């Protein structure tokens, strides 16, 4: 049960999770992204229409003619653009695989480091618990505070502040989860498993409620359609759950098989030594 063995299995789990996440994101999330992009483009066109009309009237008043100009900024600028078809296929697949591999490796290494430190849990059981805690602390709770937004939502001037708030909240959530887990394990001998788990979960919940009140609220939705926003955020949550769920299921299964195989080999050696 070495860290290398865990890492290899974590990368396998991350690869499978990346593929599964791509299919979920493509089938569930991309239609709502397309809807949001269409709304953004229609809004931009509506904003530009009065400006164009005012220019036309100004030209007519000045010279009696209205001219339409089309400017080309060169092929070099156009070549740097990535088509929407590439973004929603190869780009999405590449991103899903990269995140899956990185996340699977990190979860596997954390699970390897907690073997023997999670009470009487076997390696497969502790791996499943680590994945569940990671999903709650790293993905679910930060998502509830700062949910994903589709295109056309949010100002480009505040993207730096919004990113800092999100990752700051993620750090607080992860550190609080680690502390809550440590407290639960320490209290397990005194209060029992049930009491330790309840105490740890209550502590995490209390700290995150306070943090949620202290961190600034971001509300830049404007007049974006509520149903489109809801469907997009729901699809984003499905995508997150798919990534973490597949990693947890595959990695737990692989670690459990590894532990069973090593236990069986150890028993055979012990039996052979006793003969």
TrEMBL record:
High-level lineage: Bacteria, Bacillati, Actinomycetota, Actinomycetes, Propionibacteriales
Region (Disordered): 41-85
Keyword terms, alphabetized: Membrane, Transmembrane, Transmembrane helix
Compositionally biased intervals (Basic and acidic residues): 53-62
Segments crossing the lipid bilayer: 7-26, 90-115, 127-144, 164-185, 197-216, 236-260
Pfam family, one: CbtA
Name of protein: CbtA family protein
